[in-house]
Each structure stands twice: as structure tokens, then as C-alpha cells.
Amino acid sequence: MAKQESKGIAPLERSSYEFMAALLVASMIPLIPNWLVCLVCWIVLEGIALYICMASSITLNYSNRRKFFLSLCCLTFLTSISFNQIRTRYREENVIPPSVRYMPSWGPMPGNIPASVAEINGRLLDKYKSRFNLVVVLYHRINYESELDKRDLCKSDLVKIRPENIYVKIDYNQHFLKEMQMGATSQNFTLVALPRGMNPEDFNTLSEAESKGAQIVETNSLGIISRS
Questions:
Q1: Residue 223 burial (10 A CB sphere; 0-12, 13-18, 19+)
Q2: Helix, coil or strand: residue 222
Q3: C-alpha distance from residue 217 to each of 61, 137, 205 (Å)
Q4: Residues 6+ positions from 3 with CB-CB distance below 8 Å
Q5: pLDDT in tens, 140-151
Q6: What is residue 30's DSSP assignment?
């Protein structure tokens, strides 16, 4: 009597490996914090999906029109999901949330020193120190003039972000002193995040600063400095 051969486990088809690769990439994406790496992973995943739709054994007998329609549906679905994830990660890395109080206190320096000082909570900004430096801008807002287009701004020196309370001095310029002599009393403090390589001398208005990649982080009116 002939001995019946035992059958082992059948090897996976090529399409199964492709599907497993897609699952592996998809499972890694939620664990990736960097937006650029996340973008690359989504491109790889869409490439695998496109290959499965067009050239795998699963769609071998499909017509070209059916393959194209299936590919379009898959790419549209994956792109709709990936867009929000990549945008969220990008904003987390590159956009400082404006709703946080980064300046606990601000106001004129004591005595007759022609300068003001602002306190910055550097701990809240520490994650952005590789991308931004800081500058504090001081100005009077007279009548209804635009804050973004105000010229002759008083600016602090460039401040590097560090995880501590940072006291920043802003010297008054001649235009600011002239406005004080004319009766201007309110002081507006604006914290601006400058991209690395940009300096306070590179802009004359807040609008110009934004056009060059700076971010207006916070704006406050006259307050009292507390060093306790």
C-alpha cells in the first residue's frame, strides 16, 4: 500500500506578504511623533496599496478600468485619513499654541529707568527651543491704529528658550519716549517666536515678522512685575 504523503503548511502567496507589510506600516504610524517620518510612512503605505490594487494576484483578473477605480478609491481613503494626522503632528512640532499664558507678568522697570521688563515661562516653550528664539516687542497703541502695522517698535534682545523663568528687558526707543511725552500711557507687550536664523532687526512691524515665518505667541497690556 502506498504511503500517503503528509502535506505541510502551504507557503503564503505574494499578495499575503504585501498585505502584511501594509498592516505593519499602518500599525507603526500612530507611534511616530515626527510629522515628516509620518508623511513618509503614509506614502509607503499608499504605494503598497496601489501595488495591491494594480499588480497583485488579488486583482490579476480585474480589468484595467476596475483596477484604476479601486486604486483611486484606496488612495482617496488613505489620503483623507493621513492628511489630518500629518497636519496635527506638524502643528504640534511647529506651531506654538496661542491660548497658553507664557508671560506671567510684565510692566515698567522700577525707578526712572527708560525700559520695561517681561517675564517668560520658558518651561512651557522648552519643546520649541530647537526651532525658535524669542523676542518681546513693546509699543503704544494709540487710537485705532493697527497693532500688526505699528512701526518704530521697541524690541528686546534675542532670547534663547530655556526651561526656567526668563526676565527680558525692553529698552524704550526715541519714538516710544516721544509718545509718552504726548500722553501715551498704555504699554502693549507682544511675545514673538522667531525662526532660527531670524533676528529682531529683520522686521519693522509685526505683520512683516509674520510674513517671514515668525509667530505672535501672546499679547498683553500694561501689568505689574512680580518676582516672588
A1: middle
A2: coil
A3: 57, 11, 15
A4: none
A5: 988 777 889 999
A6: G
